[in-house]
Amino acid sequence: MTDGALVDLVGITKQFGGVRALKGVDLSVRPGEVVALVGHNGAGKSVLAQILSGVFPPSSGEIRVGGKPVAFTSPSDARLYAIETIYQTLALADNLDAPANFFLGRELRTRFGFLDKKKMAEEAKKALADLNPNFTDIERPVRQMSGGQRQAIAIARAIHFQVQLLIMDEPTAALGPHETAQVGELIKRLRAQGIGILLISHDVRDVLRLADRIVVLKNGELVGALTAKDTNEDEVVDMIIRGRKLDANGAVK
Amino acid sequence: MTAASTPWRFVTPIWPVLLVLVIGASLLSGPFLSPANIAAVLQQGVITGIVALGMTIVLIGGQFDLSTGATVMMAAVMALLLNPADGTSTALAILLPVALGGMIGLVNGLAVYRAGANSIVATIGMQFLVIGAVLALVSGQHVRADNMSEIFVSLSRARLLGIPYSVYIFLGLVIALSVMMSSTVFGRHVYALGGDIEAARRAGVKVVRTGIATYVISGMLAALAGVLIASLVGNLDPTAIRGYEFPALTAAVLGGTSLTGGVGRPADTAAAIWVIAVITNVMTILNYQYPVQLLVQGVVLTAAVAFYSWQRARS
Amino acid sequence: MQVTLSPLTLRLFVKPPLIPLLLLATFVDGFWSLGNLRTLAESISTDGLIVAGMTIVMIAGGFDLSVGAVMAMGGVTAVVLLPFGIVPAALGALIAGGISGFLSGTLVTRLRINPFIATLAMMVMVRGATLAYTDTRPVVGLDDTFLALGQGDPLPYAFLIMIVVMLAAHVLLYHRPWGRHAYAVGADERAAQMTGLKVNRLKIECYMLSGALAAFAGLLLAARLGTGSPIVGEMTPLTAAAAALIGGASLRGGEGSIMGALCGLLFVGCLINVMNLLGVPSYYQRMTIGGLLFALVVVEGLLQRARPR
Predict the structure, then answer these.
(1) Closest residue on chain C to A19 (Cα)
(2) Residue of A nearest to C307 (CA)
(3) What's the CATH superfamily of A7-82+162-242?
(4) pLDDT of C165-196, one tens digit each?
(5) Exposed, middle or buried, C153 (CB in 10 Å: 0-12/13-18/19+)?
(6) Which of B12, B101, C41, C235 is 20 to 30 A off residue A124, Cα-Cα?
């Protein structure tokens, strides 16, 4: 394990029926560090992210938070440890409005135990305005909202509450160039606040620009780790494809 | 009507329909507006209505409960078998069937939300399981309770301002469940379940527990409906009490509850219940028998489902 | 594509319960008597037609709760049309069943209504119409030719018809393109649509088949009972669904087979037969079938969960 890490994943494996999706993966994220997880489709990136966010448990291996082993039986367990996730699917209930989705699972209540709808609407509105000042019509089913607006809700609810580790699964996959740039700015801002970020992405250029470390998965195995400022696009792509790292002399390690 | 509102604010056309129907019915048939008939219509809606409220909550959560008709029968038989003659037995005759209804709901809920069983087929299986068990218990014979206590009888027969107590019980439930669905964390989570169960789970909603609770509520409400039947008749043929789940489902759907979950309101179901009660009442006055009423219910359900799915596809 | 029973289903349901049940039945007095085997053959033959239809609908990803009501309607229709001759009576029943199936299929495909709800509504409408038409009384007035249909020696005609229908359904499913398409539609409707299959048309055809078979089963039942009863078939959707599920069909579509359905039919048929021989009251039988169906869908749910995502 790594000293001072927010989270350590140690020897994580995951078996689905006869398929081994992860074969003993180690990974750590420190506060204020952006770790990018790259690899082909089916390399195991999303599975690893979902294990860390409590969607399903690993078949074997250990998750440690602040050095202590923990077991997540559901995503709400991961939330208790200030691990928040922005899922690729966004995980929004389409029939509910933005404040309801924003506070889903941790609703505010009045003194009498009822939903404090007014306060929730106000807080959600403020948090969403921080991300997108034009996003004001929030009290309608999210089904009727644009992709960018839905994304904003998913992001806003992940960073609004106490978050120490933020998992972002393909956060820019559905976005245009302008919105993608905004997400980049957001990642920089969160890092500056000391939040650890696990970024899963297909976009190697994005990853190089935003991440501190780049971790490459191939066929469920960790095939290498690179420091973003010491590497380049070719090296990363090469590692994704061939699963090996070229050393300084150009020979296969 | 605007679709641009959240489920608990969604406006369905059921209220205007009810109004038009009441006016139409009073023009069509003279006796409709007599105080006795109005009380009868209100009361006729109560039993199915209570079942339909439970159905609505299960449907909002995205599942079905077709076992409720059997639970109604179970509770009615149980209540009479417990012979509510004095204070203690009256309390037992109300509480025990309701608790048993809750247990049936619990088993349904575990099967559907724990094991992932198809809720329609599982609850149809449960329906026949319960009906068979109850008929076996009484060997298919009539059950009757003599000397039912004043309190037990008054549940459905005593009147306040000319309206039976059971109608007030129903109205109380409509209000309580409306508040529960619109203004409590539990209600919010049930809507989230029906909207996207995986999203709800990922947002930290206890989906299994919440889902099971919807079935327990449905079972308890159905049992309460059965207790009210017992208090009304005092003597019943168990085989005659059945099939409540279908009009309940029809009412929930007619009230705008979505068959795919996440949309619906208890109060709208109540309005739909009275729409059906008015139709049934007029058909009875005009001397159409049960088979035709069954046929009409089927048509109403199909039309309602078709209407709402068309409406949602458009928005 | 699932051409045989899924091994898991086979291991869990078909082999174990059927063989022990038959062994157990050996200890029940009179199970292997000629008279009882004939009763068994008669009782599974009408249900068998329905199970075949149900299996096909389930393979294509649907369900048919209306089969019991349609069976009653088929029997009544046949008896009512009997004065015009036996052929018009049979055709009338088949057409009535086919129309009802067409309506179910239309509700499911064109109006996109959940198949369980669509066929539940059809069940109520068909039952209501049949009860209304007959004024809830059985219709009588059968001629000898018709009654003879309910007999047959040594094997009941209905049983032979069931075997022929099962064989035809087997051929249709495995040896005709239509069957492959049905599996494809049930397994992944969108994929089937994109490869150019006429998904809606195929589904409607499945429901029409199921309706026609159910109505014809009603005709055979009327011939055996000697009346066209509007109230028969209350338990039929449950027994048919239980048999199809035991036979490896899935509520999620794309799976199932006629051989499996035959196993399931035999299992449920023997179960009911043994209970009758033991003098178990009908209430307990109802309970058993309800409990069996409940348990089956719970196990199916658990199996689906255990599958890899």
Answers:
(1) C308
(2) A17
(3) P-loop containing nucleotide triphosphate hydrolases (3.40.50.300)
(4) 999 999 998 889 898 899 999 888 888 888 88
(5) exposed
(6) B12
